[in-house]
Amino acid sequence: MSISPRKNTHQVLVGNVKVGGAAPIVVQSMTNTDTANIAATVKQVMELANAGSELVRITVNNEEAAEAVPEIRKQLDANGFSVPLVGDFHFNGHKLLEKYPECAKALGKFRINPGNVGKGAKRDTQFQQMIECAVKYDKPVRIGVNGGSLDQAVLTRLLDENRQKAEPDELSAVTREAIIISALESAAAAESFGLSKNKIILSCKISNVQELISIYQDLSSRCEYALHLGLTEAGIGSKGIVASSAALSVLMQKGIGDTIRISLTPEPGAARTKEVIVAQEILQTMGFRSFTPMVIACPGCGRTTSDYFQKLAMNIQGFLREQMPVWRDKYNGVEEMEVAVMGCVVNGPGESKNANIGISLPGTGETPVAPVYEDGEKTVTLKGDRIAEEFQEIVERYIERTYSA
């Protein structure tokens, strides 16, 4: 199956990052620190950026958070991190942006949820205030509609219209339309307040995979705004990874989507960077972008009763990912490298030959030696207690020799 060409959308510049148009699909993430805690937020933003997040969203929910944003930006810049910050505003964003102009200036983008900008007559006024602030400081805006906080005025209006039909639509269809209409009407309003098309990114996020796919297909056919993809409240662990992969892969295969976030619930004590890694691996395994050398490893079977090859594969993968912040600038094209770590002679030599560099470890009952292949040719056979260390050294030498500028 071929990948559909990316839908032609308006390109949006978020800080130094291009979103939409012909730009590569952008990976973004969000901190879960208290933004008012400057040290903790700076630390997590740097961790996310090092992992490969190209945009990082932070919560701006109160005056303390708004006041902290300029200092967070200052410290990031001082540490050599230019990653743009996206301010996440709900309920009181209009007040915070007006009272703290330095916060507005420090942010690379505003995120506004039309369902959370105010009720009744206040809604349009407060939305307008935020858009006019974006125009004043030349900032792009993501208008992010969420199924869980949908603008009830829009939903009520469409339900009333639906009741007048001879054959009313199902509630799920009306809700999907309400989500799309909320995004499109809000974008039109933003344009009427002076925000240009190339300053607008839209998202319509819900937690049901099939509904999300349906919504974005419809939304994409009805506008040319850059689109942010994400399955909101994706879940924890494998459920969140699988659900996000299923939804976003289908959409990107159809050429829909300009930037993505994987909204994983972190497992207790787990690094926030997991969502960045998952986003990168989705894009890389589908062939959209390359971020870090990929490790090919077999699943193991009765031939591989030792866990040696699993540990080696895990250690090599961790080593490659840890080195990427340094290697990105030092080694051109290293992110496209493939490393094979195989556990026996069935597929081991073949997969190792097909990779840039690979090792075929001995399975149960096999001769305790491990041939290493570089660009299809066997170069050395490792044996003894230092196979893992020696293979890592060989990988490092291969990278130095092959990818140095």
Automatic annotation (TrEMBL):
It catalyses: (2E)-4-hydroxy-3-methylbut-2-enyl diphosphate + oxidized [flavodoxin] + H2O + 2 H(+) = 2-C-methyl-D-erythritol 2,4-cyclic diphosphate + reduced [flavodoxin]. Its EC number is 1.17.7.3. The keyword Cell wall biogenesis/degradation does not apply. GO terms for molecular function: 4 iron, 4 sulfur cluster binding; 4-hydroxy-3-methylbut-2-en-1-yl diphosphate synthase activity (ferredoxin); 4-hydroxy-3-methylbut-2-enyl-diphosphate synthase activity (flavodoxin); iron ion binding. The keyword 4Fe-4S applies. [4Fe-4S] cluster binds at residues 298, 301, 344, 351. Keywords: 4Fe-4S, Iron, Iron-sulfur, Isoprene biosynthesis, Metal-binding, Oxidoreductase. Its cofactor is [4Fe-4S] cluster. Residues 9-279 form the IspG TIM-barrel domain. One of its GO terms (biological process) is isopentenyl diphosphate biosynthetic process, methylerythritol 4-phosphate pathway. Pathway: Isoprenoid biosynthesis; isopentenyl diphosphate biosynthesis via DXP pathway; isopentenyl diphosphate from 1-deoxy-D-xylulose 5-phosphate: step 5/6. Residues 295-396 form the IspG C-terminal domain. Binds 1 [4Fe-4S] cluster. Belongs to the IspG family. Converts 2C-methyl-D-erythritol 2,4-cyclodiphosphate (ME-2,4cPP) into 1-hydroxy-2-methyl-2-(E)-butenyl 4-diphosphate. This is 4-hydroxy-3-methylbut-2-en-1-yl diphosphate synthase (flavodoxin). The lineage of its organism: Bacteria, Pseudomonadati, Pseudomonadota, Gammaproteobacteria, Methylococcales. The gene is ispG.
